[in-house]
């Protein structure tokens, strides 16, 4: 019997080494990793600059707690909100914690409890974030959840419009439902949300845990819409593989998150912040973002060319293809051919290469996908 709780359905392969877009298992077999640790490894495995950062910082200072000033957190916060309408950051350790902070801040600021989220969303596993998640299977058997969330169908502007009342404090959503099936927001829905938030003074929270940090070809995915969120949550790609999360917010929220309101012992720890700063230094620039968009266009073109049926969804390098065969079988078959992919929802194969993937690696993935899917 395993000494681990079996709360994950783990695949029977054990990786021991990674470099760039590749990982090696304990038998020496090489795999092309188009999961990127579920959209985490923005710069691939063991990027030399990140290795260097961890080595240097690990010899200087690991942890101080938030009892003391952190110039490094200040710098990272400033870089994350630069060129946006957002003003402040709070650091934590994961996506669910970033959303937990967002839910608490929204309630405290608006003094309203009702929050709208959407079917097939995913916001995390802690009580607040789990309750925000619009998927019955995530809640089941855990007893009463936080009961102030109202789940609506995604991309249905009319239904949303009718659901808003004076008790509604906030709307929370992803720009692309990552876990839910790579479902991107439509322009029409984004326009409706923004006009509702403007008109009714409703707080807008965008969960960019999966879509943020250049994954969709812009620093944040909301930049590709008309939306101006009051709160943006981040994690996954932010640390490039080192655990760190963040909540960004507008200036008007500043007073609501004063001393003692919220916190995290580890949040914004010097080691995590140093790594995230290096990730941001490398990804938040025009050349890097342009390259993500070029790689996305190339990937989509090759999929269209080589797959008999290619129904590609998503933006940037958060792509999905609808498959007819059972998802688990497709993931298995790809792995046997040396390509790691992950499912999303019931029928979507999610393609999440590192953001610095090469055309040759994309070709290799497309060849395997064609073999498996055609
Ligand atoms: C992964 C994910 C989360 C949860 O992040 P954790 O770090 O696993 O807590 C929340 N929201 C979205 C959109 C995610 O993709």
From TrEMBL:
Protein name: Acetylornithine aminotransferase
Catalytic EC class: transferase
Signal peptide: none
Cofactor: pyridoxal 5'-phosphate
Domain of life: Bacteria
Gene name as annotated: argD
Homology family: Belongs to the class-III pyridoxal-phosphate-dependent aminotransferase family. ArgD subfamily.
An example Gene Ontology CC term for this record: cytoplasm
Subcellular location as annotated: Cytoplasm
Pathway it works in: Amino-acid biosynthesis; L-arginine biosynthesis; N(2)-acetyl-L-ornithine from L-glutamate: step 4/4
Keywords: Amino-acid biosynthesis, Aminotransferase, Arginine biosynthesis, Cytoplasm, Pyridoxal phosphate, Transferase
Known EC number: 2.6.1.11
Single annotated GO MF: identical protein binding
Sequence positions bearing N6-(pyridoxal phosphate)lysine: 236
Gene Ontology biological process: L-arginine biosynthetic process
CDD domains documented for this protein: OAT_like (cd00610)
Binding residues annotated for N(2)-acetyl-L-ornithine, in chain numbering: 125, 264
More details: May also have succinyldiaminopimelate aminotransferase activity, thus carrying out the corresponding step in lysine biosynthesis.
Binding, pyridoxal 5'-phosphate: 95-96, 122, 207-210, 265
Amino-acid biosynthesis found in the keyword field: yes
Cofactor info, note text: Binds 1 pyridoxal phosphate per subunit.
Assembly and interaction partners: Homodimer.
Reaction(s) catalysed (UniProt annotation): N(2)-acetyl-L-ornithine + 2-oxoglutarate = N-acetyl-L-glutamate 5-semialdehyde + L-glutamate
Alphabetized InterPro entries for the sequence: AcOrn/SuccOrn_fam, Aminotrans_3, Aminotrans_3_PPA_site, Class-III_PLP-dep_AT, PyrdxlP-dep_Trfase, PyrdxlP-dep_Trfase_major, PyrdxlP-dep_Trfase_small
